[in-house]
Amino acid sequence: MNVLVINCGSSSLKYQLIDSITENVLAVGLCERIGIDGSTLKYTPQGGEKIQVVSPMPNHEVAIKMVLDALVNEEYGVIKSLDEINAVGHRVVHGGEKFASSVVITDEVMKAIEECNELAPLHNPANLIGINACKALIDVPMVAVFDTAFHQTMPAEAYMYGLPYEYYEKHKIRRYGFHGTSHSYVSKRAMDIAGLDPNNSKIIVCHLGNGASVSAVLNGKSIDTSMGLTPLEGLIMGTRSGDLDPAIVDFIANKENISVDEVNTVLNKKSGVAGISGVSSDFRDLDNAADEGHERAQLALDMFNYRVVKYIGAYIGALGGVDAIVFTAGVGENNGIMRKQVMSRLAFLDVTMDDEKNKVRGEEMIVSTPDSKVKVIVVPTNEELAIARETVALVK
Ligand code: ADP
User: Fold this and answer.
1) 282 Cα nearest atom in ligand 1
2) Which residues of the chain have pLDDT under 70?
């Protein structure tokens, strides 16, 4: 069975066609600048060359039509006809409290996703546009996989904020958490790799990419995570500030004579390691700059690591111990120096790293020594595969 996985943003659309039996990626790519001049389709068939087509994409329906045309193209297509696409799995950012797991998309589901729009005004409307565009072009079962669903098992003591309770009742203000598909997939892989009992395990997952979050997973269920009502909370990220004193918002607005909306943009787009260093949001650039003696790049890296250590510490408390600490996403999978620095600060846990194994990049590997009390594991995340698996499980 072939599953088309779609991750639709406001002006972009990432896709993969996955054979669910072999779990091979038959084709992968993205559409960029949808609705903007210079729309581009990027498409790479399995084992083939990357193709780039610049062609107007006034809307998402045109973009998806181009993807489908590429998939069946005589020269570089990977399937003979669209009948070979058996289901579509859509990444949906916010499922609010309505969705604690993936669902087959029906009219009621579409309505419920729309009701979550105000919780993710930049993402959910784009996800819905992607679903509608797909529905207009192919008639197969479709599944919504939510970024928030895995964290719906958090207890109230973890998801409530110290605000008047009525704000939760009236406006649904609470911690939701994101990257759920990744935290779920990675924690399950870690249990398999380390031979941990799914019903008796304490795992901390560090998803460290451009967006970054940590989660505490008790017996396979998320009990806390660092992102909150929105993805702004928690770790210091590429361009997001992460945790700060809420009074700072008003303070900046007054001092800089800008609106709360503008402060929000600063906190989301101009802060984090990019804002601190003044160099880049990309950790490779920061590593290079720090190596050349750039002090603020070094400070940004130190602050990033320190915040990760703080969250791991907090979640050891929340879990009442820890069996495994897992690193994933661009930085977590590739940056052994960061992993080593973070774990060195946690040496009191009797954790020892295997420096040779810790050189690994983008491969599953236990990077602690066999006698280490806590296992440290690298697991490359694969949200598309997780979405394809969820889709197959629901439409079978
Ligand atoms: P997102 O999906 O949130 O955009 P990613 O998970 O792709 O983010 O992570 C992007 C980050 O990962 C960048 O800061 C980049 O520098 C870092 N990264 C990616 N590949 C490597 C690598 N080979 N070595 C070190 N860092 C890397």
Assistant:
1) 14
2) none
Q: Which residues contact 279 (CB under 8 A, 6 or more apart)?
A: 285, 286, 289, 294, 296, 297, 300
Residue 3 phi, psi dihedral angles, 5° rounding: -115, 130
Residue 143: φ, ψ to 5°: -125, 140
Whose alpha carbon is nearest atom 14 of ligand 1? 282
Record the tokens describing residue 4, joined without a space.
Answer: 């088309």
**Among 186, 184, 225, 372, which residue's Cα sits nearest to residue 312?**
225
pTM: 0.95
pLDDT at 121: 86
Q: Is the CB of 211 under 6 A from ligand 1?
A: yes
The separation between CA 308 and the C-alpha centre of its own chain, rounded to angstroms, equals 16
pLDDT at position 53: 94
Is-contact 32 21, C-beta < 8 A? no
Report long-range pairs for 348-351 (Cβ below 8 Å, ≥24 apart).
349/316, 349/322, 349/373, 349/374, 350/374, 351/325, 351/376
